[in-house]
Structures are given as C-alpha cells and as structure tokens.
Write a structure and sequence with these properties.
By secondary structure, this protein is an all-alpha fold. It has 2 domains: about 1-160, no CATH class; about 165-323, no CATH class. The chain is about 75% helix and about 0% strand. The protein is built from 10 helices and no strands. The protein has helices spanning about 1-25, 45-70, 80-110, 125-160, 175-205, 210-235, 240-245, 245-275, 275-280, 285-320. The longest helix is centred in the C-terminal third of the chain and has 37 residues, at about 285-320. The chain starts with a helix and ends with a helix.
C-alpha cells in the first residue's frame, strides 16, 4: 500500500497545481483566463483577499497529503487531521458529484460538455472552469482515497465495529436519562434551522440555469444524507438487520453531509458579507444571507451531534474490547 499512497499523494498535489498557478497569476496582477470586460478585473482588494485565502486553502491540501502519508502524521492528534479534512470534504464534495453531471448534461444537451456554458457569464474563459473543476474532482477522489487508507490504519477497528454494539451497558448509550433527550432536541433544532435554507434551495432550483439547478439539487442531496445519517447515529438500537450493520457507512454519510452543509454555508456567507460573492454573481439579498446562515448553523449542529456520538461509540468500543 505504500506505493499506492505515494501515487495518490502525487496525483493529489498535481491536481492542486492548475488552481494554485491561476490564483498566483491573478494575485500578481495577471489576467490569464479572464476575458475583457469581466467584473473580476475591477473587483479590488476584496477579491484579492479571497484569492489569497483560497491559495492558502489549496496549499493546506498539500500539508494534509504529507500528514496522511508520512509516519509523523500518525502521531498527530486526531482532531488536527480530522478538522481540515472535514472542511476539505465539505467543500469538494458537491463538486465531485455535480461537475460530472454538468458535463454529462452538456454532452446530452449539445454543448459538447466542454464548459462553454460556464463562460457565458463573462467572468472567466470556459476552459478555466473546466480545468479548475476537473482538478478539484481529481483532488477530491485522490485525497479521499488517502484519507480512507489513513483512517483504516489508525481507527479501522472502531469503524468496522457494529453500528449498535451489543456490549454490556449500551442500553442507554448516552449516559444519564436526560442527555439523550437533549441531543434529540438539538437534532430537531438543527432540522428546523435547515428548513429556511432548504426552502430557498427549492425556490432557486426553479429559477436558475441548468448548471445551477444541478448544484442546488446536489446540496439538497447532501442535506438529506446528513440528517438521515446523524439521526441513525442518535438511535440507541436497531432492527435485527441493523444489529449487523457496521459503523463506517453511517459515519461516512454524516461526515460528508454535515461538512457540505456547514462549510459551503460558511463560504457562501463569507462571500456575501465581504462583497466578493456579488462580483461572482452570487445571490446576496437578505433572504440569501438568512439561508446561508441557516445552512452553516444546521451543518455545525449536526456535526457536533455526530462528533459526540462518535466519541461515545469509541468509548463503547474500548469497553467492549476488554469484555
């Protein structure tokens, strides 16, 4: 597997290079891929700062590759590795799903699937969209594979454990009687907070272009995934079939779903509040700000609930291993 890790690491870093190169060119004043008359040419300091931030974010992916492949990465605290990977998964997750669908729609719709529709907004040349989103997709797949190998080696026994472990003392897995009820209350609150955003997504799906409708539908898909997975984690037991289920599929669904909700909600909110999103054609009305805030808050609440349940499952697994 060491050779596979090295190949995946090289592919991940190579997939970062087109995006990093373009951003560094733009930060230095270049106009590569920016057509004449694009709003990006007059975007000012705000877009420069956002471009610098995205360079730092993509550069962090290179550091994550090292952490996932070098021996010292196994000695890092779990949260130091998990948090930036959760953010990366949240931001790249919709791209790796929506972009291939957009390409397929372009082929079937007669545009050739070459990203030409993307260039119609006048922001960037169409080849830039294709190059960048192809790089993001490859980056997501390769980085995700590295993370799977890392998690398998470090926490494989826990993730292969039963979703509803039959260990002594697990009938009330959340400790004192009121704790589980409070967590269910927080779960209900997260779902209620997400409703305004979900309604907004449904409305935007009826108004936008085909590409934007695909993206909106992808966001809704991840939201359903997050809610269903966290709800499953909060259960104290299951059916006979559920008793044989493993923890990792539900945890992976909760991981990706909450990451997309929280991280994209936060990113869109940052774009709207900073003014950079307006340059890119992002919706920045008061209703949109409310929707982005609800999206981010719901994702964070669901992620917090999932993390607490995972810590409990880890303790349960540790106790069960000694029984």
């Amino acid at each position: 597997m060491e050779r596979a890790r090295n190949v995946l690491a090289a592919v991940t870093v190579a997939a970062c290079l087109p995006y990093l190169t373009l951003k560094l060119v733009w930060l230095s004043g270049g106009r590569l891929g920016i057509p004449r008359g694009s709003p990006l040419l007059d975007s000012g300091a705000t877009m420069w700062a956002l471009n610098a931030l995205t360079v730092a974010m993509d550069g962090t992916v290179v550091l994550l590759v090292l952490a996932l492949t070098r021996p010292w990465g196994r000695r890092l605290p779990g949260a130091v590795v998990a948090l930036p990977l959760w953010i990366a998964c949240g931001l790249l997750g919709p791209i790796v799903v929506a972009f291939p669908v957009q390409l397929l729609h372009g082929v079937l719709g007669g545009s050739g699937g070459d990203g030409s529709d993307k260039g119609a907004d006048g922001l960037l040349e169409s080849w830039v969209w294709t190059l960048v989103y192809t790089g993001f997709s490859v980056q997501a797949i390769a980085l995700g594979a590295l993370f799977v190998l890392y998690v398998r080696d470090r926490w494989g026994a826990l993730l292969r454990s039963p979703l509803y472990p039959p260990y002594p003392g697990t009938a009330a897995p959340d400790g004192p009687g009121g704790v589980h009820h409070r967590r269910r209350g927080l779960f209900a609150a997260a779902v209620l907070v997400a409703l305004p955003w979900a309604v907004g997504q449904a409305v935007w799906m009826t108004e936008g272009s085909a590409d934007s409708r695909i993206v909106d539908a992808t966001f809704l898909l991840y939201a359903v995934l997050a809610v269903a997975a966290v709800a499953k984690l909060l259960r104290t037991g299951g059916t006979e079939r559920g008793a044989t289920a493993r923890l990792w599929p539900t945890l992976a669904a909760a991981w990706s779903g909450t990451g997309v909700l929280a991280c994209w909600g936060g990113w869109l909110l940052l774009g709207a509040l900073s003014g950079g999103g307006r340059t890119l054609g992002q919706e920045t009305s008061g209703t949109a700000l409310l929707a982005y805030s609800c999206q981010a808050l719901a994702g964070l609440l669901l992620a917090a609930l999932g993390a607490r349940q995972l810590r409990h499952r880890a303790r349960t697994h540790s106790r069960g291993a000694t029984v």
